[in-house]
Amino acid sequence: MLFSHPEFDNHEHLSFFCDAETGLKAIVAIHNTSRGPALGGCRMFPYANDEEAVRDVLRLSKGMTYKSALANLDLGGGKSVIIGDPRQQKSQALLEAMGRHLEGLGGQYIAAEDSGTSVPDLKIMGHHTRHVAGVAYRTGFDGQPSTGDPSPVTAYGTFIGLKAAVRHKFGSHDLTGLKVAIQGVGNVGFRLARHLKEAGAELWVSDIHEDNLQRAIEELGARAANAGDILSLPVDVVAPCAMGAVLNDRSIPGIKAGIVAGAANNLLDRPEHDALLKQRNILYAPDFAINAGGIIDVFYERTGGSPDTIRAHVDTIGDTLAEIFTRSDRTGLPTGEIANELAEERFKKHTTGASLAPERLSRTG
Ligand code: NAD
Fold it and tell me: How many Cβ atoms are within 10 Å of 270's Cβ, its own excluded?
């Protein structure tokens, strides 16, 4: 049942952890460690059944292998899930039990925050393990104090990727007057909007939270759009920065923009929507390529990296996307498929085991 699971895809490791005293039921999946120890979020969610949890952890863990490899990081892919409602079942004792389990894996998997867990939760796990990430106070890549929140770096990386798409599609380095519609101006979307504003772009925004919408209007002079219309506005670029599966049978026929470049994860509702965008001559910047700034930031938190080093690495998101776009033109294959191919090239050629020993990536003390 597990080895033949449709999402199994040669996972290296899958472990199930149960702690009766605290009610912890967790699964850790490590997809591939050929580039380095697996890093990925620890999600807490009230899965309807075990099968749903297994499916989610396998799918997400594989996704992390592809994201880190495409970003040229010495990291593998992994993920963990805690089965339970974070509002009702999360306790200090449960998080500590999770920390002990992670420590037992010896650093082959490093946990970061995800939906249902927070930086303080990871810090509690960190009482019992060195193998948690995104928890250190330090100077961020922009010289500002950072609490470990990767959103500023994700937003910067998305901006770099969006510029690479504009260069490829419109042959221009200048964003002055570029019309961009941003769906969701939360942690990442608002910061992306600010980069674009500074570069001279004109902005349209939508958000289901009125205060976030108002902030973008007041601070950045953005124009408000209806939540239902944002992806079909007559603009140059649409940037979905809210939730996944928004590129689907309903939305794609209505897109008028030449480019889709946004930070939200799992933007394609189904794999075939990649080809549908290509058929419509819409340049799609694959989500896991353009939103890799966060994982790059977390990597350097652990290995130590100056703000300049982080920025230089995030800038390579533009080069990776340029390569994806050029290959897509040359082969006629959609950009998402090319991104998968390129990621596989980058993790499959590392066959000699972890290129960075887990200890080097683990917090000491
Ligand atoms: P966030 O919760 O801070 O922001 C999301 C915003 O979208 C919120 O303001 C929310 O009100 C709005 N929203 C939700 N539904 C909407 C809808 N239907 N229409 C318009 N707006 C809507 O989250 P975030 O950290 O900014 O992340 C945004 C996306 O980027 C998520 O998909 C996340 O998984 C992905 N992502 C984030 C990071 C990161 O570093 N934060 C890294 C990689 C990927």
Answer: 11
Q: Which of 25, 62, 67, 79 is catalytic?
A: 79
Q: What is the pLDDT of residues 97-110, one digit of tens each?
A: 999 999 999 999 99
pLDDT of residue 360: 45
pTM of the model: 0.92
79 carries an active-site annotation: yes
Element (H, E) at 64: helix 50-70
Q: Ligand 1 atom closest to Cα of 297?
A: 40
Ordered domains of the chain (ranges, CATH):
2-68+77-132 (3.40.50.10860), 145-347 (3.40.50.720)
Cα dihedral value 317, 320, 344, 328, nearest 10: 130
Single-letter amino acid, residue 66 = Y
What is the predicted pLDDT for the residue at 350?
64
Cα dihedral: 122, 123, 127, 128 (round 10): 20
Tell me, using a 6 A CB cutoff, whether residue 86 lines ligand 1. Answer: no
